[in-house]
Amino acid sequence: MSNIFARQPLQFARSFLFAGTAALLLTPLAANAQGGAPTATAQTQAKNSDWLYVGSDIPRDTAWQFGVLPNGVRYAVRNNGVPPGQVSIRVRMDVGSMFETEQERGYAHLLEHLTFRGSEHIPDGEAKRIWQRFGVTFGSDSNAQTTPTQTVYQLDLPSVTPANLDESMKLLSGMVREPRISELAVAAERGVVMSELRESDGPQKRIADATNAHLFAGQLLGDRSPIGTTASLGKASATSVTAFHNRWYRPDRAVVVIVGDADPAVLAGLVAKYYGDWKADGPNPADPDFGKPDPKKPAAREIVEANQPLALTLAMVRPWKKRIDTVENTRRLYLEFIAQALVNRRLENRARSGGSYLVATVEQQYVSRSVDVTMASIVPLSDWKAALADVRGVIADAVKNPPSQADIDREANEIQAFLVKELENARNEPGARLADDMVRAVDIGETVTSPQGQVDMFKAIRASATPKVMLDISKAIFAAPVTRVVLTTPTAAGGDAAVLAALKAPVTARDDRLATLKADFKQLPAIGQPGTITATSSLLGLRAERIEFANGVTALVSNNKVEPGKVRVNVRFGTGNRSVAADAPNLLWTGDYALVASGIGPWGQNEIDQLTNGRQIQMNFAIDDDAFELSAESNPADLTDQMRLIAGKLAQPRWDPSPVERLRIGFLTGYDLNDATPNAVLDRNLRGWLTNNDARWAAPDKAQISALTPAAFRAFWEPRLASGPIEVQVFGDLESVDYKKILAETFGALPPRQTLAPPAGQRVDFAKHVTVPEIAYHRGEQGQAAAMTAWPTSGGLANPRDARGLEVLAAIFNDRLFDRLRAEQGASYGPVVDSHWPTGFDTGGYLLVGSLLAPKDLDRFYGIARDIAADLVAKPITADELARNAGPIREQVARASTGNVYWMFLLEGATRDPRVTASALSIQDDIAAVTAADVQRLARQYLTPDRQWSLAILPKGMTLADASALGAAPAPAPVPAAAAGGR
Predict the structure, then answer these.
(1) Using CA atoms, how far apart are residues 150 and 97, in angstroms rounded to an integer?
(2) Which is it for strands 726-732 and 554-559: parallel, antiparallel or unpaired?
(3) Alpha carbon distance 317, 217 (integer Å)
(4) Is the peptide bond before 83 cis (omega within 30 degrees of 0)?
(5) Could you say which protein family the record assigns here (predicted)?
(6) Less CB within 10 Å around the terminal CB: N or C of the chain?
């Protein structure tokens, strides 16, 4: 079974991403499928089909078909119709950064970039354009990833036809087998990778590199980051990269995974057709020795980084052991996960009740076939020694005293509920996820099984999770031959010796287990008498029903089987950003965490956790321009209580002070990171800058954060939680529930609500026009900068056709910027162009162009952006350019439109404004109707120099003139190896 536990334990729903997939089909491959497929005997096929399951007794799913070509290429294919018409292709090469020599550091990643430029059989860069014509979006539908142990090429092909599927397989196989590795291509992609390295550089990367080097001392994992080094990349040549490719890119190191809306026999035939004649050059080289944890290396490390918050990493490091994936192995993995969850629950309980740390979590990982490690990540409040002692104390209790059966059952309930949810949703599993799950399983040497197999195995496994068994498991995952700790601190705290002393200090077991609670939904006071339905109607063109209640609540309900066993709920109330004036102080920034965490009626966070344990009940909060939102993903059995919980939040909010104080401390703890890099500056400030410092989007300063109190929090949010109007969206499998009764007893039972009148003159302004870029500063690396330029557009629901046209214009601008700034010149890793057209306001839209850059490239960026804008204004685009950029947008919409999430998003506000429905129904037609003349008209209307705003983010102390001077100077020589060390 795939290692479902190599993820953050608090992100439980994400930790099982590749547990619930399918396994094996013993159907022989049809001979010569699609032409050119080698014939194999049935006996060979049966043997080859077992390659993932050698020695395993894991239950299999007959949806998968496996095979091995005579040259050693392995494949796994299956049919899957989600989304309809899509085929997802993954090519995994068994080579990553730990396979590089010291002189080749970064080559696996550089080769990944070169491979996607094209092959010896197609012109440089033409593969991207071909796939665009097939509706593929570069960067999401076509991408690649390099890790320490593998390189994976990804292609999600929409609207598949036999012709474009065959052509795509041909292109991708040619790129992997025979990439175009010329000196010109190496120079261009080296620039891109150097840009990526530069853009990721900074204190957090230094901390990560130093932490890995310390925790995994003596192992390749400690100093083989996939990005490589300036020195090794600077010396890369076509000859040296080709040698790396020839050594490791071989048929017997390749796995091809294809999942999609096609016959598996056809997919297997295409693998044989385009990979069957691939010949290896010499014997398969042995994998490098990844090394083992060295107990002789130092145990403690202090990392001093100015303006970084206090942080601790405590690691218990064990050698990695290769195991055959069996049911017993799966049992061990599940029990290990429960043991982590037990400790995490206790750590979180201590943080909620006022501990010495803001956050602390433990996580066990099997990392890169190198180590089996249990890590505790800690964010201390102030006294890092006390925080370390407290976390060690919780761990000490976990390995000394067995958990109660009730505690074990609570964590097991969460796992079982998730697995049942995966089983119910199996029919809607996207093919791309199934393909990714298979690749991960191959990488970590484990199998996959079906959702039903997971449920059945876990039911048997949880029965064995007794207090004694769980105590033994806890002892195993928190014991290790090597224990190391890293302290990150903004100022020196006594050096390595002080950190070592804290690690060696005697530890006292801390009992932070949750008290037994008796929370029940019956404790929630009645909301009121069930409401009366005053009107019902259908939305024309949609399978949705509009329901009106006497109290003014409206509901939009869609009873469908798009996602069997799943019901999505979104409750929109009040007026969102409109409830605040553009120039008035506000606490909008506090709602995301503290509003949900502050409780409901008689219940605090712990009681709500108990109420929802093992059930599909949740609550998420968001702010839209015209409403606040409480949303959840539930199921028919839990829908009644799910609706009661959200209605209870609106009717009987609780105002626990602890979450507010925790939020305040969290913001202050991370405040100094806000200008640590250009990216951090943008994340914090960009929306405020674009709206002319509108207080609704401008980030709070330190004084505002420090001044936050529970009383101020309540004073701001209480009237908003009590405001109207209320619109409830319920989409999903409602066949077995009386949704009208549920609505009437919850939201229909609320007292009538008044609208919190928006301040007069609601509008969103755009940043003031400038002729010379404004300047902001960061405190990061001197080689890092960012450039932004933008033009105001519009907003609202009156002209949806122009909104779609601007999306196409942005895609074309982005494509040209990518080609010139990245593909041709290597100046940027990821330039972006974005069109924002708000529907909650009639103003506030913009087209934004930006990139992270070296300071020397700022002038080049502004010049290229200016040239592209002027050309779009002056000349109509070609039919091919329009098709290549509008096609992927249409495909993205077509794929998304098969799900409830898409329609719920588009229909937000539909019960208030009929234009919402009309706009939602016309999207695909509006995109298809965009012409070259429309693109030019919109460019002429909006891309005018007299309204343009620009901004550059520079290292502190640098001026635009300084940056321009750097651009005029000769490029520096590559950094010699000696000078590049240490990072």
Answers:
(1) 8
(2) parallel
(3) 11
(4) yes
(5) Belongs to the peptidase M16 family.
(6) C
Of 747, 737, 732, 733, nearest to 903 by C-alpha is: 732
For 882-921, the pLDDT digits (tens) are 999 999 999 999 999 999 999 999 999 999 999 999 999 9
Q: Helix 858-874 vs helix 932-942: angle between axes, to the nearest 10 degrees?
A: 120
DSSP string, 869-916: HHHHHHSPPPHHHHHHHHHHHHHHHHHHTTSHHHHHHHTTTTTT-HHH
Residues of the chain with CATH 3.30.830.10: 300-504, 531-749, 774-968
The pLDDT of residue 118 is 85
* Cα dihedral value 240, 241, 244, 248, nearest 10: -160
708/705 Cα distance (integer angstroms): 5
Q: Which positions of the chain have pLDDT values less than 70?
A: 1-48, 969-983
Q: Is the CB of residue 142 less than 8 Å from the CB of residue 155?
A: yes
Q: Are strands 151-157 and 87-93 parallel, antiparallel or unpaired?
A: antiparallel
DSSP string, 829-869: S--EEEEE--SSSSS--EEEEEEEE-GGGHHHHHHHHHHHH
CATH top-level class for 531-749? alpha beta
User: What pLDDT, in 10s, does the model give residues 474-506?
Assistant: 999 999 999 999 999 999 999 999 999 999 999
Burial class (CB in 10 A: 0-12, 13-18, 19+), 904: buried
Contact 840, 625 (CB under 8 A): yes
Matching residue, tokens 């208030």: 912
Q: What is the pLDDT of residue 27?
A: 23
- Spell out the CATH class of 774-968: alpha beta
Of 895, 25, 1, the C-alpha closest to 438 is 1
Cis bond before residue 725 (omega within 30° of 0): yes
Please provide the DSSP assignment of 7-70 as one string.
S-TT-HHHHTTTTS------PPPPTTTTS-PPP--HHHHHHHTTTT-TT------TTEEEEE-T
Q: What is the DSSP string of 674-698?
A: GGSSHHHHHHHHHHHHHTTS-TTTS
Per-residue pLDDT, 382 = 92
Report whether 60 contacts 449 (CB < 8 A). Answer: yes
User: Encoding tokens for residue 789?
Assistant: 């330029």
Please give the Cα distance from 437 to 443 (Å, whole number).
10
**What per-residue confidence (pLDDT) applies to 266?**
98
List C-alpha distances in Å: 388 to 378, 403, 473, 769.
Answer: 8, 22, 22, 51
* Extended beta strands in 401-517, E state: 482-489
Q: Which of 484, 75, 571 is nearest to 293 (CA)?
A: 484
DSSP secondary structure, 908-925, as one string? TTTTT-HHHHHHHHHHHH
- In terms of CATH, what superfamily is 300-504? Metalloenzyme, LuxS/M16 peptidase-like (3.30.830.10)
Residue 782 CA to residue 347 CA, distance in Å, equals 39
Of 764, 766, 730, 735, the residue nearest 747 (C-alpha): 730
**How far apart are the C-alpha atoms of 906 and 919, rounded to whole Å?**
8
